């Protein structure tokens, strides 16, 4: 059985993108990127909404960009080796290997995927993650808190879900980012 994790880089005030949709303030440096690479080694499946997939599909060809540092190439290899499931009603096709397109997010199908997976999974993007959180599918939540306040935008967590969490890991990086990783306590979300 695989665990389903939701984690993203956020602003201190809890946004993954600012009010204009920008997230350039969240670009990881080598230390942070290397840590993310290490934590991603057990991930075998990424669950994406359309917007997050369109951002992440860059990694399908990142290795072809000249002079990429090794930590970037390492992430590209990890991403390419994993399965991807994209949930979208508007995307016509996918452009990466090991990727399938689903028209609707079916919590029961994700439960079955978790139950039969021999690896961990992630749900990526706040919209899709909100659906997974509401369905009680998320086992762990991680947040890379960046030392910036953006004042509004796309929230990391939805307003209508309550989770009781247990801190399992924390780390501070030289660039001021603080990583916190929580396990969702049994019983799932409450509204």
TrEMBL record:
Q: Which domain of life is it from?
A: Bacteria
Q: Which SUPFAM superfamilies match?
A: Dihydrofolate reductase-like
Ranges for the Bacterial bifunctional deaminase-reductase C-terminal domain? Answer: 4-179
Molecular function per GO: 5-amino-6-(5-phosphoribosylamino)uracil reductase activity
Q: Name one Pfam family in it.
A: RibD_C
Any one biological process term the GO annotation gives: riboflavin biosynthetic process
- The name this protein carries in UniProt is Deaminase
